[in-house]
Amino acid sequence: MTDHAARQLSRMFRDIASAMADARDWLTELDGAIGDADHGITMALGFEAVTAALAREDLDRMAPSAVFEIAATAFLDAVGASTGPLYATAFRRAARFLRTQEPAASNTPAQAPSLAARPLAPLSTATQTGLLQAMAAGIAERGKGQRGDKTMLDAWIPAAEAAESAAGLDAASLWRAVLPAAEAGAEATRSMTAARGRAARLGERSLGHIDPGAASAVILLQAMARVLADQTDAS
Predict the structure, then answer these.
(1) pTM of the predicted model as reported, rounded to 2 decimal places
(2) Locate the DhaL domain: which residues (predicted)?
């Protein structure tokens, strides 16, 4: 049985929320070394809010882009720190991209019943690649950052680049390329001096520490992979 795309994305956000809750203390410890020691709490609260918001929706009558729009609003409402606007922008860019992939009827509320009658299949590999690129671009746009600044972009940009390089592969192969790139990017932040965010105030003292935003980005991408790489699950 084929899973509806909106349900697939809702499961993805639930998996992200669970993973962030599990990693909350570790992420907070990382942030304590170079930041305000609240990143783990922030990420856990933000994605808990996203899953709560999606739980109130009729996913069978929802376009995939709407899932990301709801996620953007819920995350931003729950997270007042700088991470809130960054991921809200990422999710809105993802929604904008997904709207270009959806049938015209899925963008018209009056056509919702026909959408439910014609469930959208799980996101294709090409769509997943576009999704990653849109999210990375949204974070870079909002944060005015770049690779090497010792931020979450040091995981997101390599992930998006790896996805583009893996064009034409199946979903499982796509994520086998994406995750190592993101993980290596996050690990590389140990040897970087922070150029943005609160960690930038530390200067050379930020050396030797993994950026917590890059670490949480890897956790997020790992959770995405667990759901999106499997095109057979119908839960």
Answers:
(1) 0.87
(2) 7-226
pLDDT tens, position by position, 68-81: 999 999 999 999 77
Contacts of 151 (CB under 8 A, 6+ apart): 143, 145, 194, 196, 197, 211, 213, 214
Q: Is residue 2 very low, low, confident or very high in pLDDT (cuts 50, 70, 90)?
A: very low
Query: How far, in Å, CA of 180 to CA of 222, rounded?
Result: 10
Q: Which two tokens mark 91? A: 């999710």
Q: What are phi and psi of 152, to 5 degrees?
A: -60, -25
pLDDT tens for 104-125 read: 644 444 333 334 434 456 789 9
Residue 234 located in a structural domain: no
For residues 2 and 89, the model is more confident at 89
Q: Which of 54, 63, 70, 53 is nearest to 121 (CA)?
A: 63
For residue 189, is it within any domain? yes
How far apart (Å, rounded) are the C-alpha atoms in residues 123 and 229?
10
Structural domain range at position 122? 5-228
Residue 220, in any domain of the structure: yes
Residue 155 to residue 181: CA distance in whole angstroms: 7
Average pLDDT, the chain: 86
* CATH number of the domain within which 43 lies: 1.25.40.340
Question: Phi, psi at residue 203, to the nearest 5°?
Answer: 60, -130
The residue count for the chain: 235
- Residue 233 in any domain: the answer is no
Question: Which of 157, 134, 133 shows the shortest CA–CA distance to 145?
Answer: 157
Closest alpha carbon to 33 in 233, 154, 194, 228: 194
Contact 12, 227 (CB under 8 A): yes
